[in-house]
Amino acid sequence: MKIILLLIIATSLQVNATVYAQKITLSEKNAPLEKVLKKIRRQSGYTFFYESALLKHTHAITIDIKDGELIPLLDQILNNQSLTYSFAGKIIVIKSAVQPQLVIPPPEQPKPPINIKGTVVDDKGKFLPGASVKVKGTNLGVVTNAQGGFEIKNVPDDAILTVSFVGYVTREISVKEDISVIKLAAAPSVLTEIVVVGYGTQKKENLTGAVGVIRSESLSDRPTTSPANLLQGLAAGMTVTTQGNYPGASANIKIRETSTWQGGSDPLYVIDGFVRNAATFSQINPADIDNISILKDAASTAIYGVRGGNGVILVTTKHGVANQTYISYNGSYTRNTREITPRRMNAFDAYTFANQVFEQKGLPATDPSYYTPDELTYFKTHSYDWLKDTWRNPWNTSHNLAVSGGTNTTKYYVSAGYIKQEGATSNSFNKYNLSAKLDGQISNRISFNLNILTEWDNGDRPFWAYDYGDFNLSNIYNRLLMVTPGRPSFINGLPVGNFDNTNTANLAKGNGGYTRPTNNNISPSFQLKYQIPGIEGLSAKGTFAYNTTNSYTKAWRNAPSIYYFQTAGTNNHIVTDKLDFNRSGGYKILDQAQISGIGAPTELQESYGQSSNYQLDLMLNYERSFGLHNISAFAGYEQSAFRGHYSTIWDDNYSNPDYQQINGGSSQSTDWYIRGDENQPTGFASYLGRVDYNYASKYMIGFTFRADGSYVFPSNKRWGYFPAVSAAWNISKESFFANYARYVDFLKLRFSFGITGTDNTAPWQWQQTYNFNSSSGVYLGSSLPISTTLGSTINPNITWEKNKNYNLGLDFGILKKLLSGSVDVWYKKTSDILGQRNASVPSTVGASLPAVNYGIASAKGVELSLSHENHVGDFFYRVAANWAVSSNQYLKYD
Question: What dihedral do alpha carbons 610, 681, 765, 800 form, nearest 10°?
Answer without folding.
Answer: 110
